[in-house]
Write a structure and sequence with these properties.
The chain is 40% helix and 19% strand. The protein is built from 10 helices and 12 strands. The strands form 3 sheets. Strands 1, 2, 3, 4, 5, 7 and 12 form a 7-stranded mixed sheet that branches. Strands 6-8-9 form a 3-stranded antiparallel sheet. Helix 1 packs across helix 3, helix 4 crosses helix 5 (112-121) and helix 7 (183-193) packs across helix 9 (237-246). It is globular, with a radius of gyration of 19 Å.
């Protein structure tokens, strides 16, 4: 039986967009219906499941987390917004972005990293997303900062991108491809749209090699992370590294007071459960929330533009360079 937590959520009206016309309680129940079945069912219905998840949490995320929905290690004396900006600048530098380049953000959310990286690198970035409200919100925020002429959004599934081959000078994904039902197929799509000689960088969510699938406590931690983050499954690090190789890359490193809609407290509760899972997973070294990798493409037996590995706080990064023909 559901027992509400002691915390009280207050969300100002400006953070309650038209997509909340469907009662939160109803959307919460629709999302949770997918977690009564098997992993295969969640993967088969991943687009609908992920949409339902972000119907629930987008408003909560923006209100409590800002426009960039991702983790970042924090230096001493550094604020959360500052750490996320540094995190995004680091990614742009690892990609070697240059002014005027055409870049793809895979699973862009409401475009926080897109705007920060576009302004930092003076590039033109396309955000790919399947969630209608997030795209609408992202476009409004782009207009607010004057990026609506150089950056845009496309509503599409990253498993079936509506772009020709060799479309982009660079591609990145920040904690988004963890929603993919088949990560190999997802990475292959990214490979396809990336121009020869260019790079791909991704922050990935993984279970570490310390994860024991036969350990009930480990299983519970993994399940809490999946449920609270709209994930069909969390792959172990080795599976992610194998997936990038199969795709053609070579890894080089590694509602009680009436101020929020009815149902809000339940959403907060399962997000807090996810936080518990993330905390326990990190404490027991079972989970890496940032796997940022450095990859290379090999074509025609030639090796191109190697990047150096960077790692911190148990996090890895990889970028990919597409071999020139």
């Amino acid at each position: 039986m559901f027992s509400p937590p002691s915390r009280i959520l207050v969300v100002p009206a400006r953070y309650l967009p038209s997509q909340l016309s469907i009662p939160i309680k109803k959307r919460y129940e629709k999302y949770h219906s997918y977690y009564g079945g098997e992993e295969k069912d969640r993967k088969d219905n991943y687009t609908d499941m992920v949409n339902k998840y972000y119907d629930l949490v987008t408003t909560f995320f923006e209100y409590g987390w800002g426009e960039s929905f991702h983790f970042a290690n924090r230096l001493k004396g550094e604020s959360l917004p500052e750490s996320k900006k540094r995190h995004e600048h680091f990614l742009a530098l690892q990609l070697g972005l240059k002014p005027g380049q055409k870049v793809l953000d895979v699973g862009c959310g409401i475009g926080g990293p897109l705007r920060e990286i576009a302004q930092f690198s003076m590039t033109s970035i396309t955000g790919l997303n399947i969630h209608e409200y997030q795209i609408t919100r992202g476009k409004a925020l782009n207009r607010k900062v004057g990026l609506d002429k150089t950056c845009d959004f496309v509503k599409a599934d990253f498993m079936k991108m509506p772009f020709p081959d060799n479309s982009f000078d660079a591609v990145y994904a920040i904690e988004a491809t963890c929603h993919a039902p088949d990560v190999v197929a997802c990475y292959k799509e990214i490979y396809r749209v990336l121009k020869p000689g260019q790079c791909f960088a991704v922050y990935e969510w993984c279970m570490t090699d310390s994860f024991d699938p036969h350990n009930q406590e480990h299983q519970n931690i993994k399940a809490e992370i999946e449920l609270g983050n709209g994930l069909p499954d969390i792959r172990v690090t080795g599976q992610c590294l194998d997936a990038v190789k199969q795709a053609g890359f070579e890894a080089k490193g590694l509602e009680y007071i009436g101020l929020a809609p009815k149902g809000s407290q339940r959403v907060l509760h399962f997000l807090l459960k996810a936080a518990d899972g993330l905390f326990d997973g990190g404490r027991k070294v079972l989970f890496i929330q940032l796997l940022l990798a450095i990859l290379e493409f090999y074509l025609s037996g030639k090796k191109y533009s190697q990047q150096c590995i960077s790692s911190w706080l148990g996090s890895l990064m990889w970028t990919a360079s597409h071999g020139a023909v």
